Amino acid sequence: MYQINALNPKDEGHHTRKRFGQNFLHDQRVIAKIVRSVNPRTGDNIVEIGPGLAALTSPLIGECDALTVIELDRDLAAGLPGRVPHPERLTIVETDALKYDFTELFDGRPLRVVGNLPYNISTPLLFHLLEFGDKVKDMHFMLQKEVVDRITAEPNTKEYGRLSVMIQYYCKPTFLFEVPPGSFNPPPKVTSAVFRLEPYDVKPIVAKNEKALARLVSHVFTQRRKTLRNSLKGMLVEDGFEKAGVDPMARPETLTLAQFVALADQMVDA
I need a labelling partner for 65 at 20 to 30 A (CA). Which of 27, 56, 85, 160 fits? Predict the structure, then answer.
């Protein structure tokens, strides 16, 4: 079993801060399972977002020769060296991950990003990280299960939507396992889940204009009860549906990623 330091915020005199979305993981079985999923190795360029009280940082740093952590909370950042078994292997970056340029950590070795992400910034942070996909080997995150279900959803399911399509355009997502509320302090009101994202070296499907794809996907899922013909009125070139091979009477949740890309390629300003 991994030895985890500083599991209880009360023991450390640290009060959780709602504005940072802090829920501290303390379940050693879950922590060990996450570390096994990441499978860190000597020489890996591992980056942990939001190390908190080092529950995951400690076992990770024991398995690799260097670990960079990004922490916004100054109090937590200051205490990290005293909570890990090999502080000399630790590099602390005090900043907001949402605004950070992750290329600064790329040294020729692809990044392996890990984190128990704050629920309140999870979606924008994922999209921010996708901007650096060509520098990333994989990402292992814990989020609300509801969000992970949406990320990994397939067409013709209620969970399938903008998040599914756009993340699956850039990455291969894999649902790994659930994490119950009792694994955290304080316990969140939702079940969590751990998942893996592997950015594609070469995307299996490539849009002519990725901004057009993002705009189309966002637009149709804000009107998911409408048929594509109605929601995309005036947005496609003449005979756009026919050229894309997509039924104009279909609804967005029935389309595959390839069909969304085909439609985006027929947008007037694509």
Answer: 27
